Amino acid sequence: MDIDNFDPHIADPSSTVNMVLKKAKTNLGKRALMKKAPKLVETEGKMCVMLHGGKSSQVLKNLITDLSVLKKGECHKMTRKNDGIRPFEGGGETSLEFFAQKADAGAFVLGTHQKKRPDCLTVGRFFDYHLFDMVELLVRNYKPMDSFGSVGNGAVLGSKPCMVFLGDRFETEPALRMAKNVLMDIFRGKPATRINLKGVDRVIICTALEEAVMFRQCVIRYKKSGTRLPKVELEEMGPSFDFVVGRHQEPPPDVKKQAYAKAKIGKKVKNVEHDSLEGKVGRIYVEKQTGLEELAMMKMKGLKRERRQAAEEREAAMKAPKKSKTDDDDGEDSD
């Protein structure tokens, strides 16, 4: 089902019939459901749904288009308006959760335009396809990526951005602290244990000032410095905008505890490793054993060379001429 062409007036997304997943009957379907199931350790990037509310503006349309380019491959962008989505009102998040389940998304970006809150960008996260937390960003001074020309051509599609948050307000104010966590969760990409320096080609900088927060994205240029570490230069590539934090909603304590659960780390077993090919591999240390050469080990008759050698030696001794005693006595006298 294409959720971009979904019409809430034809089928009510709040009905429980549409929210139930059918049980898989084939192995392919079972693997697909297992891939979509929540995991303690996620190995893929967080899929994001980007959509518009009942009323939107051209600024929000262009901004969401630019953000979808930054999240290309991990984003589902919807172009139609959705009148029934009001996440801060009771029951207004049902359609949003329905779209999250259809797209297997863990985050969302919603653009709404009202007289009280013009150019409002709501960002948030899901847990188990239910709304977890969200915060409003009131956009100002927006500049699209097209206005910066071809500066961003050096950035590779799908690369992990380096994110920098400057200012004490990100630690002291709960709304900004939530905005920091949500933005990092949306743009972090796939988890990685090792990163190549040349793969870090862009940086997202959020600076918290007294009146607003500046969102800037720059491309990283590596220049020769004559040393092992290159000289780094930043050049703004867009999108560029300022925002003021509006309303925010914290997750319930019980849901937050369940969402932040970590896998239990078992005790390390000595001399045991896990290999991707052989599975569990262990190493055993055995003391030096003595007396093995004295053990009577079974041998086949055909392999017993000692008997054949002994028989050949006896036969050779019988055929050899015997020396007489007179010869031995004569030899002793001559000495």
From TrEMBL:
Ranges of compositional bias, category Basic and acidic residues: 308-317
Brix domain sequence ranges: 46-254
List the residue ranges of the region (Disordered): 302-335
> Pfam families of this UniProt entry?
Brix
What GO CC annotations are associated with the protein?
A: nucleolus
What keywords are annotated for this sequence in UniProt? Nucleus
Q: Which residues form the signal peptide?
A: none
- For whether the record's keyword set contains Lipid biosynthesis, the answer is no
Listed GO MF terms: rRNA binding
Family of the protein in this entry: Belongs to the RPF2 family.
Q: What is this protein called?
A: Ribosome production factor 2 homolog
